Amino acid sequence: MTLIYNLAADFGASSGRLILSKFDGDKIELEEIHRFSNDPVRIGSRFYWDFPRLFHELKNGLKKAALKGIDISGIGIDTWGVDYGLIDKNGDLLSNPIHYRDNRTDNIIDDIEKIMSFEEIYKVTGIQYLQLNTLYQLYADLKFRPDILEKADALLFMPDLFNFYLTGQKYNEYTIASTSQMLEVFSKTWALEMLEKLSLPTKILQKIIMPGNIIGKLTKDIQEETGLPDVPVMSVGSHDTASAVAATPLEGENCAYISSGTWSLLGVESKEPIVNEDSLKDNFTNEGGLEGRIRFLKNINGLWMIQQLKKHWQEHGIDVGYGEISKAAAAVKNDGFIIDPNDKSFLAPLNMATAVQQYCINNGQGEPREIGEIARAVYNGLAREYKARISNLEEITGRKINVINMVGGGIQDEFLCQHTANITGKTVLAGPIEATALGNILAQLIALGEINDLSQGREIVKNSITQKKYTPQ
Ligand code: ADP
Ligand code: LRH
Q: Domains, the chain, ranges and CATH?
């Protein structure tokens, strides 16, 4: 068979990367051709995406791909969920997109509750409460910068925004739109009635495009600048977690997944949305996946805490890497420190080490002082949270979970994988690391007719990687 080459651009919080894939009909090989840091910037009191810089890096990656001189069949873009850019009728970006860790949504739920209860919103959207959801961000725009919203002609989620400036085509891709809390969960269409009730503009919403279609071809300008020909940009699971779950080799209903990176996304795949009193009580979400599958999951604040600890220590002259932090945490004598990862104080603290120490002191545990102790408090908190949420999942779905498939960059942390197995008492199957890029590529290969469907895609993932098994000890 002829070899098929595709490009996946994945904008994660720990880094952005462009990955070139080679498909030979049986397996997919990945080659990372460009990696760059993704640094949001605080200006005044606002916390922004550095969109121009990231678009620059995207083009740098495309230039590197062009230099390879191979025939590229498609490009797919994914980013984290919920964030968006607003553009005017000329296609100009009205402001640098604001990052979801910005504090403008801090009390927005109270404003919204006066008009519609969370329960009502949940029944329509099936989406968990997180103050960072697009719905709350957009409401904050209405409250704090209505002038920008008035000028807006289109709301484009971050992958849509990259796609627009690559192709000139405006769409809202379904999986990323599903994170907004603005879609009706069952019909997969905009929740217009709810949005109108909240006085949010609906004319800025675009046509929804499902993963697995062609968005458009690279514009002439982009072709000239990058040296690539008129390659199609494809709609993929443009929410990074949708792509990660797509490439998770789940073996049936008794498997749960943890997509482990900046966040831990823990859940199961479901054919239908699950929206009932229990899912509401436990704040589980119904996000969209490939082939109309539902990602029934929960967001758990994840390795963001370890990223921020590493940054803090490095800024203070202690040059520790992820591997060393993980080993130090595994080796501590006092392993009793534990935090609640979902505590508000860990969402965007100025100093993560102090936030962890303060939490432990406030909760009568004393003060973790060494690197290993502080990190261990985080790992213990994560593993305890995984155990509790798996048990919620079992109750809500009636499934018995035997295996946890862990995927994403976080599985390079062997202590985290083993600790997860030990504390949950479940077998952990770790792999793939680059699940998001693989899922992005799978959607493209399905669209190109090279792979029949997601089940075949997951078989191909299994052929392409080695999974590591962690048994509870
Ligand atoms: P995202 O897509 O959210 O940017 P990734 O899936 O790339 O995140 O995962 C990044 C995380 O993986 C880091 O925050 C770090 O905790 C973990 N990690 C990466 N490399 C290693 C390593 N060598 N050892 C242990 N952990 C690692
Ligand atoms: C993970 C992720 C997660 C979202 C969060 C904002 O990268 O996309 O699924 O909820 O970022």
A: 4-239 (3.30.420.40), 250-430 (3.30.420.40)
